[in-house]
Amino acid sequence: MARYLATRIGLGVLTVFGVVLLTFVLMFVVPGDPARTIAGPRATPQILALVRANLHLNQSVLAQLGHYLAGIVHGDLGVSYVQDQPVAQLIIDRLPATIELGLAGLALELILGGAFGVWDGMRPRRSRILAVVNVGLLSVPAFSLAFVLLLLFGYKLSLFPIDGGTGGTRIVLPALTLGLFGMPYYANVVRDAMQETLAAPYTRTAVAKGLPRRAVLRRHVLRNAFSPALTMAGLDFAILLSGVVFVETVFGWPGIGQLQTQAFYNVDRPVLMGTVVVAAVLVVVATLAIDLIRMAIDPRTRLETR
Amino acid sequence: MSTVSLPEAPTASGLRVQDLHVRYGERHAVQGVSFSVAPGQTLAIVGESGCGKSSTALAVARLLPPGASIEGRALVGDLDLVDARGRTLREARGRVVAYMPQDAMAALNPVQSARRQIAEVLSFRQGASRSEAAAGAVALLAEVGINEPESVARRYPHELSGGMRQRVMLAIALAARPRVLIADEPTTALDVTVQAGILSLVRRLTRADAMALVWITHDIGVVAEIADAVAVMYGGRIVEQGPVETIFEHPEHPYTRALVHAPRQSRDALPKAPFQAIPGSPPLGEFPVGCPFHPRCARAVCADDAADAGAGPGALRGLPPAERTPMTTGDPLLQLTDVHKQYRSVRALRGVSVEIRPGETLGMVGESGSGKSTVGRIVLGLERPTSGSLRFDGRPYPRTARSLRAIRRRIGIVFQDPYDSLDPRFTLRRIIDEPLRTHGLPSGRDRIAELLTSVGMENADPDSYPTTYSGGQRQRIGIARALALEPDLIVCDEPTSALDVSVQAQILNLLLALQRERNLAYLFISHDLEVVRRMSDRIAVIREGEVVETGPAAEVTSAPQHPYTRALLDAVPATRPSERHVDANGSADPVVAA
């Protein structure tokens, strides 16, 4: 197990390094001069040169990469060109909001999609209701779904505050948007897995034992039927953790996605780089966590350590 | 010997099935089946795929999939299982009737330990406490002959061997002490030595508990070992039933005769002599009117119908006796010297040395995990040995994939499962054409027709798809594909294990005929010692990656030198009840434990 973990962590570090390398190269392809962004349009050549020297921009790409990597090891992601704050601090400030929304969105996806999927999977024929709901949700662009919710529940009915920011019931609408957006995928996956599990020989064995129907479902069907949804949730969680731009923008949710968008418009290279690096780390951690959970649930995926 | 009379089941328990019908929509799979089994007795229902035996089993156990309908009666005492609904049915499950399926790996929940799966029967059905149920599960594992029940109880299905999994299934089936046990081919996927152990175990336990046992099988040898009475099913009906001695010694129905006589005639036949085959293949879906067997029956007035499906060179009944192909003495075509193969920590092959001369068949026999299929893959150049030398036609196997192609062109393969090994989206033409095209060889309409004719499929439309053909016909298509490149050697990896008994003989005859015509060499891989004996010039017995014995087929099987070869021979099921290894009380000759 220790060896497995060490390998996985090593691979994770390599992955993050690869991501850093790639984004670093991309940053230099992006047009625009950071020194000019910082110093303003009327800066003299002397000031520009000074800014460049401060940010090591006058050095070679390789040297700059070296500086950046050395910084990461010390938890230093550089300083924002625009906000004049350490990038690490900016990200840490926003991480709790992102994690909160990510978890809430994921939970709603799983609960809504899981409930619909189980209900539909137990029917002999596919339900029309679910089909309509699925197609409806899939065909509505995510941001218009967000706007509909915002207008209906926030503005018309005034059920939830829509002043932006976190706290209280402010999380309901953005989380619901994510939940409804992801629900059809989970509903389909769980439904198919339910049908497969219900027809599986081991379910027949459970019936042959004379177990009550509810015990058959709870003990034998559900655990197996949720296995594929769990794999999907792992990938989803990683995506949600790296920030969901449209939801954060519509609802004014101060998460990493928002930070990233701003940085993008301002060509704020250190912040952009920082969010990408943090996202990469989170994805690596989330996939490892999901694999460990899978091992706990499905003994077939466990390592041969007996 | 047990005294056997066809039981009338006077006691309250025992099973009486009357005029049972099963329909899947339009398809009438079981058409009025009646039989009865007394407590402590064993009825074997024997038949081929699609004959309705499994539908009968599932109907009596009330485990048919949704959409199937049952009519008739299945009485255990006063309870009619066909009529049981709701709570009555649930109460009857496990306690009145229990079911043991063929594929234990699929029938056990992959994410639960053996203990949990057995214990839940005890806790739900008998109100046992958590600790009582756990202890009960271990006791049941001990009862089904598992040596370290505490340790096995903790394991998950994928951590158990095939034999142990089937024993766990048996423990589940017996946990609520049923009056009737329906066993649906539970030993089919097991090695013969393991099968023998399970057969005697089930027989002993059902006798001791005065349980009525219905054993579904396609294997007449298993019937001879275990049954008190036999029902022979064909085309959705029981064509003949009676006490086991009567069925084996005085069979009435032509199909029963063919089934019962085939293994006996086989035992007496010389290696490479043609097999007794029933032409055609068992009906699927639509059953014929009248006796369902008549299209394949030699005694039927109009037997011509038989000629269409899969008849051909190999299916002919009156093949001339085999001219013993003289032992070829030329240089070996294929030569493996001290071949080792290691997969991580598993030593799959530990120094295998065999050779095959042109026109010769080397039979390679062994149980699952013995390494026999690894040898096949190495010969085909699909895998490289860890060490050892490999020569084809005097030259060593080349290292690069590109130069391996030249060798691959001269070695064909026939796969085990004709359902999986033909792409359902390819036409026959494309299937047979593919190797020709890959190697840049001329093909065309005539070549395809010629190849189809050579495997007895001259009436097949080259533009049809394999899904429209039966298993036997598909295997013929697979053989045509192997012949396309005119190979010198064909690797046959269990070529008949997925086929019905009556169809197996046709395919084996076809292989024998093709060998004579074309001077083909075969590497014939199988777990079935009897088939290997009949097909081979020489036999190599392989066990745990080592060849323990090689020699001429007749010598190896009549005077085995190695104890393992003897054990394999002993575990081959009897051909008649009087020779059974399993005695009346179910104790068997010592066999390798699962």
What is the general shape of chain A? globular
How many strands of chain B? 20
> Secondary-structure element order of chain A, as H and E?
HHHHHHHHHHHHHH
CATH topology heading of the largest domain in chain A: MetI-like fold
The coarse silhouette of chain B is globular
Average pLDDT score of chain B = 85
Helix content of chain B: 25-40%
Q: Please state the structural category of chain B.
A: alpha/beta
Largest binding interface between chains: A-B, 24 and 35 residues
Residue fraction in strands of chain B: 15-25%
Textual characterization of the structure:
The complex is a heterodimer of chains A (306) and B (594). Chain A has 306 residues and is mainly alpha-helical. Chain A has helices at 2-29, 34-39, 45-54, 61-73, 87-121, 128-139, 142-156, 172-198, 201-208, 213-225, 227-241, 245-251, 256-265, 269-297. Chain A folds into 2 domains: 2-57; 95-301, MetI-like fold (Orthogonal Bundle), CATH 1.10.3720.10. In chain A, 75% of the residues lie in helices and 0% in strands. Chain A is globular and about 85 Å long. The relative contact order of chain A is 0.14. The mean pLDDT of chain A is 84. Chain B folds into 4 domains: 14-96 and 178-252, 3-Layer(aba) Sandwich (Rossmann fold), CATH 3.40.50; 104-177, no CATH class; 259-315, no CATH class; 334-576, Rossmann fold, CATH 3.40.50. In chain B, 34% of the residues lie in helices and 21% in strands. Chain B has 20 helices and 20 strands. Chain B has helices at residues 53-60, 86-92, 104-107, 114-126, 130-143, 149-153, 162-174, 192-208, 220-226, 244-249, 254-268, 372-379, 401-408, 428-438, 445-454, 471-483, 501-518, 529-535, 553-558, 563-571, and strands at residues 15-24, 27-37, 42-46, 68-76, 79-80, 97-100, 180-184, 212-217, 229-234, 237-243, 334-343, 346-356, 361-365, 387-392, 395-396, 411-414, 489-493, 521-526, 538-543, 546-552. In chain B, the strands form 4 sheets. Chain B has a 6-stranded mixed sheet, with helices on both faces. Chain B has a 6-stranded mixed sheet with strand order 16-17-18-13-19-20, sandwiched between helices. In chain B, strands 2-1-4-5 form a 4-stranded antiparallel sheet, covered by helices on one side. Chain B is globular, with a radius of gyration of 25 Å. Chain A binds chain B through residues 124, 199-202, 204-212, 215, 219-220, 223-224, 297-300, 306, and chain B through 61, 63, 65-66, 90-95, 98-99, 101, 103, 106-113, 117, 120-121, 124-125, 156, 158-159, 169, 172-173, 175-176.
